[in-house]
């Protein structure tokens, strides 16, 4: 487990696809007040072992600008951490406290490409 509280991430949401089916991303937004928990996933294909990085990104409230809680807006977004690792958002969940106040956003990530 590789847990970091002091870094930031840049996220650009998927805006659509080009004529070849490749994702088109919007402007990068910087997010601080985060927790990024990286975990390797090992898989063997044939006789070759591959390592993919997965991660759970938690964005804590409050943020400078309000953040959407629409799952559809987050799926497929691109996340770049301080070390320039690139991830894609696979799942999103808004987490609320007992008074129904938004306290954090949880994004499940998988290693992606630029």
**Structural Rg:** 15 Å
Number of DSSP-assigned strands: 10
Helix content: under 10%
Mean pLDDT reading = 87
Beta fraction of the residues?
over 45%
Backbone shape: globular
The SSE string, one letter per element, is: EEEEEEEHEEE
Low-confidence stretches: none
Throw out a few tags for this protein.
114 residues; mainly beta; 8-stranded antiparallel sheet; two-stranded antiparallel sheet; 1 helix; 59% strand; globular
Short description:
The protein is mainly beta. Helices cover 4% and strands 59% of the residues.
List the helices and strands and how they pair.
Elements: E1 2-4, E2 9-12, E3 14-17, E4 23-25, E5 29-31, E6 34-45, E7 48-60, H1 71-74, E8 78-81, E9 86-96, E10 102-111
Antiparallel strand pairs: 1-6, 2-5, 2-8, 3-4, 6-7, 7-10, 8-9, 9-10
Overview of this structure, please?
The protein has one helix and ten strands. The chain is mainly beta. It has an eight-stranded antiparallel sheet with strand order 1-6-7-10-9-8-2-5. It has a two-stranded antiparallel sheet with strand order 3-4. It is 4% helix and 59% strand.
